[in-house]
Amino acid sequence: MTTRQLQSLARQHGTPIVVVDHSVLRRNYAEFRRHLPKVQAYYAVKANSDPAIIRTLFEAGASFDVASVAEFMLVYELIKHLPPRQRQDFIWDKIIYANPTKPKETLQALDQYKPLVTYDNPHELQKIKAYAPHAGLVLRLRVANTGSQCELSSKFGCDPGEAVDLIVAAFKLGLVVEGISFHVGSQCTNFENFVQAMNAAAAVMKEARERGHEIKILDIGGGFPARYNKHVRPFSELARVINAELTRLFPPDIEILAEPGRFLVATAATAIARIIGKAIRDGKPCYYIDDSVYHTFSGIIFDHCQYPLKAFKRGKPEVSAVFGQTCDGLDTLSQSELLPDLDIEDLVYAENIGAYSNASATWFNGFPPAKVVHVNQ
Ligand SMILES: *Cc1c(COP(=O)(O)O)cnc(C)c1O
Fold this sequence. Notes:
alpha/beta; elongated; 2 domains; 12 helices
């Protein structure tokens, strides 16, 4: 989007807004598929669950990783018009329920769809047996998350040493383990994590095969880094590493899926906010905007992500502070943003803010989340 287009949308819709460019969603999805042609992409809905985003990715050919009943139903909406037989085939092709811990009510609600669900411990296995006996299983491994922006390995995944026992235990209960999955941590710029994880998964599959259980699906999870800046190496480089390991470690007929969230949506959205207050504190310009870390900029807190703020106005950059609209001190977007001298009513914008941003916006302090504007749908 050009700065002229962004300003015109802000004039038309007011502020704060989040502009989602669907041509970027389609481009990111196509890039993923082009570089990893053997891998089906299951978009991780939690990154941004806007139904229009889900629809565009669905139409582009994506499948989906969901982690709650509500997310499951958002995707199921799109496939439920299909005839029953095709719909059944569709479930595994189109949806994986990738939250390893599920309350029994969730399992009960999902069982009728015969879903593919993940697990990583014996307690979960007992629950699945009791409440969703028709589910197919995917075992989640704990793998290295070194250097990833968001760590997941302390919360999820079984130790590789326990993996085969957990597979055997599932079959003993009359369940079927279809796949192995892992997650290398979100915004994983350390490609070695993927290499190590694929090697661990291959070792587990080999041992399971020796004990009579053929695993058909490899799920390489999420973590594919969005190009927030030039320091993030291009996706093609990571894909080259992944493709080489896939060929080296796994039989050619294995089904491979991935769960990219951030990679598909981060670069597709731009937030635009308006300066609603200004002060000079200790000689530093301080700006107050009509969005906040409780709203579109929630990724600063929850996602450990910084979004450089830019002004449409030109001028000599000065180190400035930017605060959100709420009455809380935590609501600080930046203590050192380079901005020209701005006035109340001027606009600022932040690019690459499509993932883990408005998805975790709240109504804190009575301020509603920013309006989402879809373009090139
Ligand atoms: C959040 C999540 C993803 C998406 O991760 P990204 O880093 O956004 O690609 C994928 N799989 C699972 C199980 C997740 O929880």
